[in-house]
Amino acid sequence: MKRGxxxxxxxxxxxxxxxxxxxxxxxxxxxxxxxxxxxxxxxVVGSVEISRIARGNFQSAxxxxxxxxxxxxxxxxxxxxxxxxxxxxxxLKLHRVEANIEPGNEASIALVRRAGFTRxxxxxxxxxxxxxxxxxERWALLREDWRPPRGGSRPTRxxxxxxxxx
Length: 166
Description:
This protein has 166 residues and is α+β, with helices and mostly antiparallel strands. The protein has helices at 76-91, 106-114, 159-164; strands at 2-3, 9-10, 12-15, 19-23, 31-38, 44-54, 60-67, 96-101, 118-129, 132-142.
């Protein structure tokens, strides 16, 4: 356990080799927010959210994530994404996780592609960001296509991503 910025003890929810996830304080049933922390010193380097968790016949959610600019290209987000997916599919027992990504965000597209997501479509003017409505690509991963990394948090690809990439 590590101490957060408020001095409260943050309990590890999912742990990897380089990073671990701690749960953000939020009591909503349809949201799970996590801080991404380095294992070496517990410093917060980013966050990942599982939101709009739909139960019933859907069992699905949206995925959002961000990493500090100084922490990019170190593998932290690749590992954190796998930890978040493990939580989504095992702890939350979701069937599907979706990520909506601006077409020019090559790093984010590469991240979800490595994790096994499949590009399912394109949504015109999907989200208002920076004062403008922006297009997004819709990427999704099904529980049966997710392949947990062996021997740690190495990125993997689901069979659907290999056979159906658009």
